[in-house]
Amino acid sequence: MPKGLVISDLHLFSPRSLGDEILPQLRAKLSATQLLVINGDLVDFRWSVLGDVPSTAQSALMWLGHLLEDFKNLRLHYVIGNADYRKWYLEGLKEFAKSQPRLAVHEEYLILDRKLFLHGDIVHARGDLNSYRARCEAAGHGSRLFDKLYDFAVASGLSRWHAARQSQSHSAQAIVEYLSQKNDPRLASIREIYFGHTHAPFENFRHDNLLFHNTGALMRGLSGNMVLFEI
Questions:
Q1: In this prediction, what percent of the chain has a pLDDT beyond 70?
Q2: By the 8 A CB rule, do 38 and 79 touch?
Q3: What is the rounded average pLDDT of the residues 41-54?
Q4: Which of 54, 98, 182, 207 gets the highest tally of CB atoms within 10 A of its CB?
Q5: Domains of the chain by residue range
């Protein structure tokens, strides 16, 4: 049976991203599949080291373009997360997608047969995804002090410890409650849910008759999964 691949939380262009290091592994997996879901936080505007926001956005589009160019049969679904949610970036991304028929952009979630993919930031949004993302967008670029503190958290293992404390049941319930508010008849047939955001990878957690999978984060000091799924 054909396979798709889902990844999330690369946080490209941030100091702690493993984007360059995992690229060979990603390319090897893509050689065996024709569908990739990037499940949010591909790029991280808040912590980008590229100097300015337009450069970060342009580099993200180039990254996507190179991937599509190198894998001619690849269908790519890009689900937006909180770290890459910037209105002007979304506008540019959607415009870019018009010239890339194998690229689809999804602001909230993607449904493929009985599988649903969303970033998962609703877990920390207290039920209001739009307000949460607006706050993330308004936060601006992170300070050098917080950047150093983040590095300390990675080096000391605090970031991994914090991720491990993220409750699977809490995350799953927050997603279930969020989806219950959606007037989307397709949701009735969903059996599996894939998400990221919490940076705590796991597979096959059952909650409310749904099977949940988390892809973690491909960042230093954290764990991430590249998960294959049937299509």
A1: 88
A2: yes
A3: 90
A4: 207
A5: 3-230
